[in-house]
Write a structure and sequence with these properties.
The chain is α/β, with parallel strands linked by helices. The protein folds into 2 domains: 118 residues, no CATH class; 228 residues, Spore Coat Polysaccharide Biosynthesis Protein SpsA, Chain A (Alpha-Beta Complex). It has 12 helices and 10 strands. Strands 3-2-1-4-8-6-9 form a 7-stranded mixed beta sheet, sandwiched between helices. A 3-stranded mixed beta sheet has the order 5-10-7. α1 runs parallel beside α11. The relative contact order is 0.16.
Length: 384
């Protein structure tokens, strides 16, 4: 097939250049995000996690507000960890249901439970940053592990696995994975896929030294580090981001580690309705105005490259001067490489068969994330 005539058509050359550049960027993105998550290995830790020797004392901290049913379901998994010396600090924040009663019963059976009661609304700020800060202040140990009331460890060795991230005194923050426990159906599939992609993006970036966020459902940092960096004080007025903004402002290549062992996985109840899931995703986007300009550029580059890639392929099909084999070759190569990378990535998070539908999900989230970005355009600037 003769391609010499392409050199005389500027429009065709531009289409090929855009399509090829977008393809290269997407190929690198899939490799560094999904493939890397599937093949990267954790560095060996000097901590003896088998016998318990040398394991540091740990404080697990969470906030409950009218969550009696969730506590009944999930807190036993936190209190029955195979770990020699740890406490679970639960901040009961203005609960009006049976939360206090449930915690009292747990205190009778689990001496490692510490309950912090906040009866009056002395929080002049929105969100859970104030009660969470009180819980961290009340903790007696330097290593803090944060989670949510709707979460439950996948393993009794969860704490051991998370603590493995503290490989040296230089480690201040440890990022660990969370799996959404979603119901069967299309919404559940979308929730799980979105959760996995989000994890692959921020955890792979962290392994490359580009730390920009974390999830409070499975996050650890040193108590001393929290107070040395003023905790949440500089962004108390922001109702969201007790995890996201804190990690973004304080996480660095030299002080942040990622744990990927299956035992380090936390299971979290999925929102369950499209409205609640959309609200959760909107919260994630609202705090991006605190990110640096480079971090925000990195986030939008992949959906932008995806849109340019498909637009270029469609226009090449419509352009008579461009042989059909070129856009077809680009599409086939892109889809095959994507399948391989996503397959490797899903193995890390114990998922199956997500790679087959990943191109369709990718297109859906390209549109959905664009709509989210437009909705939050009014937040052009956040507090420094």
């Amino acid at each position: 097939m003769d391609f010499a005539h392409l050199l005389t058509d500027t429009y065709a050359i531009v289409l090929l250049a855009v399509g090829a550049a977008a393809f290269v960027y997407l190929a690198l993105s899939y490799g560094l995000t999904f493939l890397r998550m599937g093949i990267v290995k954790e560095a060996d830790s000097k901590t003896d996690t088998a016998s318990g020797g040398g394991l540091p004392s740990v404080s697990v901290v969470l906030v409950a507000q009218n969550n009696a049913d969730m506590l009944r379901q999930h807190i036993p998994g936190l209190l029955e960890q195979d770990y020699p010396n740890y406490e679970v600090v639960v901040v009961d924040y203005e609960s009006k249901d049976d939360t206090e009663f449930v915690l009292q019963l747990c205190e009778e059976n689990f001496p490692n439970l510490k309950r912090v009661k906040i009866s009056e609304n002395v929080n002049f700020f929105h969100g859970k940053k104030y009660p969470l800060a009180i819980g961290i202040k009340s903790a007696k140990n330097d290593i803090i592990v944060l989670t949510d009331v709707d979460c439950e460890p996948e393993s009794e060795n969860w704490l051991r696995s998370v603590v493995k991230g503290y490989k040296s005194a230089a480690t201040k923050i440890v990022l660990a994975p969370t799996r959404l426990d979603a119901k069967p159906g299309l919404l559940g599939i979308l929730e799980r896929y979105d959760n996995r992609v989000y994890h692959c993006q921020f955890m792979s970036a962290a392994t490359l030294g580009h730390v920009y966020t974390g999830l409070g459902s499975n996050l650890s940092y040193r108590r001393s580090f929290f107070f040395e960096n003023d905790g949440f004080i500089r962004h108390y007025l922001e109702p969201y981001g007790d995890d996201d903004i804190f990690v973004n402002r304080n996480g660095r290549k030299g002080n942040t580690e990622v744990v990927l062992n299956p035992d380090s996985m936390m299971k979290k109840d999925a929102p369950g309705t499209f409205a609640l899931w959309s609200y959760m995703r909107r919260q994630r986007v609202m705090t991006r105005c605190y990110y640096s300009f480079i971090q925000r550029i990195r986030i939008v580059m992949r959906p932008l490259a995806l849109a340019l890639f498909y637009a270029a392929c469609v226009l090449m099909f419509l352009e008579p001067m461009v042989p059909w084999v070129l856009p077809v070759a680009l599409l086939v190569l892109k889809l095959l490489w994507q399948e391989v990378c996503v397959w490797y990535g899903q193995r890390r998070f114990l998922l199956k068969n997500f790679h087959w539908a990943s191109p369709l999900f990718e297109l859906y989230f390209m549109v959905a994330d664009t709509i989210l970005a437009i909705i939050t355009l009014h937040r052009k600037r956040c507090n420094p």
